[in-house]
């Protein structure tokens, strides 16, 4: 503080301010921030140079923490629908309304008649990780939906089928690799995803500086592509074919070297056979990439001392999402770079189970049940987000009667939000846990707003399984909760209490203590657990007193791979130890741990899972498809985050706009100048045009998360520059069949002058 304003009483603002550390929850990079706080308000945020993981990195969103935290449009009290209007209510009134409304549906139709949609921020909160599952379990519903089927579900399926563990993320070791191929990701803007990397841009620059090579495969010349040694621009949706041609080349040119993996992999011959008819020449026309370019990708990956392919949204939310996501790991295996420094590695989360002796597992299955209307298979206990509307609106036995949305805005983020919005109007009861009155929550009967991030504790339960360096960090709330205001764990606990039949006003600590008792009973009974044979009651006594979520975190950390195992390893991790090291603890670079990970029936990497191999037939028939017409892809912006950050003055305006990007030559041929009409399988839109030669010809791009012009929404700044909802072009019928994930990239569209 160099120029603190002088207050009326003569003291400077600096005297009132203090700083607090807070891990940023706004993207997967998990940067440590230093917040400057004045009378309970966050007035500044900067990167924490001492943070063991992020070392001072911050992006525009993190720097806008204060604006986001203090947004005047954030709800500070619950809203309850009375006579058709959403009006403010006390917390007690709101919880009573939930008990009445949800209670009636559960009583009349059962918990399984309630659908739950969990959105992206759940991956960034303690509440999302530890309490949302309790609500779902309390309902006993099989109608669970989430942003995963608009995002990474193909990766879960391919990991599950290949390694037996759908959560065993393979993360590129960017700090040590010699050669990185980024396919369908734009980490310079997204700051990384399913790879928790603070300062991804800096790490890519460092890679090049140490003589490494960066190749980007993306139909758009993104900021990441601009930084690369080489950029390949394929036709959208064709990555799986391109990667199969890379695999083909590895076999064809005798470049396959399993190295240390040799004894741990089965199915290599099947993969060779699958790739047989995907010679570079066979896919070149379909992918729009010359055969030699594809061969070079394979040769370079094989030749580098270490190399890794990293794929994200562009390989995932596409027609062949699971096949493409699988092939990313297949290539890493075939070049000997899985589970090896500089390759694709498995992080070790501090809240994962302590390693058990290697043993074959039961493998990973999908389709244990199917959606009622379209018969979509369950995947990781979820149904496709694209199928939510039909489950709500189709009458009959098993129809969803109520909906709970938690940190999600599916009306903008999922295909055909207009239809979903209409369906939400028709349910008997809708509850939203969300800080904003937005396009989705405006349909709710009750909105329960969690406090802003400054008033919430933070631990990255979910993202601890994807960092490029193993670490543990904890932020207690930086600002006290106002009296009477529940935090999000408490909100969700009270809903669980309603579902347990105890009513909303029972002690929320009951929920946590029940989880703790059940978990410790199970652990102490497991002969391979570090607490095997101990008395659960004794372990409960050892947990630090505090809020329920803190006790649960303490339990998880203490039983985890770095834990103190409840005193058995006195130097091990506890929550108290994390609190005592506020800039975090670094557990070092990722280390090989494949045998700890594998839970396939064979106990090996099953490189050719039958259902994925089977889906390649669909890809084979796509190869002969014509390549005419325009295809639509999405894009992200540095100063934005999906649908919910368009309400901050600091992040809006400028180049952060909802425009249709198109190549100038395409625009000229079409006679498109300043505005275009875009027609997709599900609808039509008009958007301002932005000419750019960064896009491959025949490809247009429109970002998602816009369309803030609905009535009854309380996001004043966003409403001033609403943009259009790209997902209205999509009817949601096009899915990756193995994962139920919506096709959001590579949608056929027609473009004309507006
Ligand atoms: N066309 C197209 N569509 C896409 C994508 C794309 O690339 N193209 N991307 C997809 C992807 S990757 C994703 S992850 C999804 C995202 O889909 P969603 O998760 O459904 O949407 P978000 O826009 O992230 O909305 C997050 C919601 O959480 C609320 N929120 C923010 N913080 C908190 C909190 O701490 N607690 C609670 N309870 N609520 C909070 C916000 O107000 C907002 O309502 O969108 C998908 N949709
Ligand atoms: N600033 C910012 N950061 C974010 C978000 C945000 O909205 N804004 N969202 C967060 C979320 S929820 C997520 S999931 C991550 C996503 O993180 P990323 O996946 O890194 O981000 P995207 O911008 O979706 O990158 C996808 C890239 O794939 C390209 N692409 C599209 N179709 C294809 C294709 O068929 N093949 C190939 N090879 N490429 C294709 C697109 O041009 C785009 O550059 O970002 C997170 N971080
Ligand atoms: S990169 Fe992500 S985690 Fe880091 S400051 Fe920006 S939004 Fe926050
Ligand atoms: Mo996402």
Characterization of the model:
The protein has 754 residues and is an alpha/beta fold. Among the domains are: 70 residues, Phosphorylase Kinase, domain 1 (2-Layer Sandwich); 213 residues, Dimethylsulfoxide Reductase, domain 2 (3-Layer(aba) Sandwich), CATH 3.40.228.10; 126 residues, Barwin-like endoglucanases. Helices cover 31% and strands 16% of the residues. It is built from 28 helices and 28 strands. The strands form eight sheets. A seven-stranded mixed sheet has the order 5-4-17-16-15-6-7, with helices on one face. Strands 22-24-23-28-21-25 form a six-stranded mixed sheet. Strands 11-10-9-13 form a four-stranded parallel sheet. Helix 11 runs parallel beside helix 16, helix 13 packs across helix 14 and helix 21 runs parallel beside helix 23. The protein is globular, with a radius of gyration of 25 Å. The N terminus is likely disordered. Molybdenum atom (MO) binds next to loops. InterPro entries: Asp_de-COase-like_dom_sf, MoPterin_dinucl-bd_dom, Mopterin_OxRdtase, Mopterin_OxRdtase_4Fe-4S_dom, Prok_molybdopt-oxidoreductase. Pfam families: Molybdop_Fe4S4, Molybdopterin, Molydop_binding. One of its GO terms (cellular component) is membrane.
């Amino acid at each position: 503080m160099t120029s603190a304003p002088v207050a009326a009483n003569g003291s400077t603002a600096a005297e009132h301010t203090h700083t607090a550390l807070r891990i940023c929850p706004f993207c997967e990079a998990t940067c440590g921030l230093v917040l400057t706080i004045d009378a309970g308000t966050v007035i500044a945020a900067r990167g924490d140079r001492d943070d063991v993981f992020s070392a001072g990195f911050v992006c525009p969103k993190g720097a806008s923490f204060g604006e986001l935290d203090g947004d005047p449009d954030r709800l500070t009290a619950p809203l309850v629908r009375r006579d058709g209007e959403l009006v403010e209510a006390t917390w007690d009134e709101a919880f009573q309304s939930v008990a009445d409304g949800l209670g009636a549906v559960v009583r009349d139709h059962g918990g399984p008649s309630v659908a739950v949609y969990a959105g992206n921020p759940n991956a960034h909160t303690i509440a999302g990780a530890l309490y949302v599952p309790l609500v779902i379990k309390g309902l006993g519903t099989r109608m669970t939906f989430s942003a995963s089927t608009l995002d990474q579900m193909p990766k879960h399926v391919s990991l599950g089928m290949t390694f037996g563990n759908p959560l065993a993320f393979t993360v590129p070791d960017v700090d040590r690799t010699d050669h990185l191929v980024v396919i369908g990701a734009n980490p310079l803007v997204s700051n990384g995803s399913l790879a928790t990397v603070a300062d991804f841009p800096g790490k890519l620059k460092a890679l090049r500086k140490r003589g490494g090579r960066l190749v980007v495969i993306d139909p758009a010349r993104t900021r990441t592509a601009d930084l690369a040694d080489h950029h390949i621009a394929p036709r959208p949706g064709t990555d799986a074919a391109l990667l199969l041609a890379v695999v083909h080349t590895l076999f064809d040119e005798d470049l396959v070297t399993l190295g240390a993996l040799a004894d741990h992999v089965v199915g290599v011959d099947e993969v060779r056979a699958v790739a047989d008819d995907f010679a570079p020449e066979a896919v070149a026309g379909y992918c729009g990439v010359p055969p030699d370019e594809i061969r070079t990708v394979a040769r370079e990956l094989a030749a580098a001392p270490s190399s890794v392919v990293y794929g994200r949204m562009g390989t995932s939310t596409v027609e062949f999402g699971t096949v493409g996501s699988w092939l990313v790991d297949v290539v890493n295996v075939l070049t000997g770079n899985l589970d090896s420094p500089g390759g694709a590695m498995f992080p070790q989360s501090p809240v994962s189970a302590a390693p058990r002796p290697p043993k074959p597992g039961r493998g990973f299955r999908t389709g244990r049940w199917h959606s009622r209307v379209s018969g979509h298979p369950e995947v990781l206990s979820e149904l496709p987000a694209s199928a939510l509307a039909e489950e709500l609106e189709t009458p009959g036995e098993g129809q969803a009667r109520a909906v709970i949305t938690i940190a999600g805005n599916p009306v903008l983020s999922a295909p055909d939000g207009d239809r979903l919005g209409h369906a939400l109007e028709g349910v008997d009861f809708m509850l939203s846990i969300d800080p904003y009155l937005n396009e989705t929550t405006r349909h709710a009967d009750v909105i329960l707003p969690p406090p802003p991030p400054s008033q919430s504790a933070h631990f990255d339960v979910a993202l601890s399984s994807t960092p490029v360096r193993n670490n543990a960090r904890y932020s207690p709330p930086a600002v006290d909760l106002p009296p009477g205001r529940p935090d999000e764990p408490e909100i969700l606990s009270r809903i669980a209490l309603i579902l347990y039949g105890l009513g909303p006003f029972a002690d929320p600590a009951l929920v946590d203590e029940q989880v703790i008792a059940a978990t410790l009973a199970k652990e102490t009974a497991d002969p391979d657990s570090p607490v095997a044979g101990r008395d659960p009651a004794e372990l409960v006594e050892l947990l630090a007193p505090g809020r329920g979520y803190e006790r649960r975190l303490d339990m998880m950390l203490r039983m985890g791979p770095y834990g103190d195992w409840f005193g058995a390893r006195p130097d091990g991790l506890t929550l108290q130890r994390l609190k005592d090291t506020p800039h975090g603890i670094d557990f070092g670079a990722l280390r090989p741990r494949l045998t700890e990970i594998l839970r396939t029936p064979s106990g090996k990497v099953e490189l050719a899972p039958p259902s994925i191999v089977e889906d390649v037939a669909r890809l084979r028939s796509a190869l002969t498809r014509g390549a005419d017409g325009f295809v639509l892809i999405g894009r992200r912006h540095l100063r934005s985050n999906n649908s919910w950050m368009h309400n901050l003055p600091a992040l809006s305006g400028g180049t952060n706009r909802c425009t249709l990007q198109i190549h100038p030559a395409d625009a000229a041929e079409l006679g498109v100048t300043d505005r275009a009409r875009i027609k997709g399988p599900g609808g039509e839109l008009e958007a301002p045009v932005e000419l750019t030669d960064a896009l491959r010809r025949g490809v247009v791009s429109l970002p998602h998360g816009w369309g803030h012009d609905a009535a009854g929404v309380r996001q004043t700044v966003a409403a001033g520059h609403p943009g259009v909802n790209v997902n209205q072009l999509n009817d949601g019928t096009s899915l990756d069949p193995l994962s139920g994930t919506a096709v959001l990239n590579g949608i056929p569209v027609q473009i004309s002058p507006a």
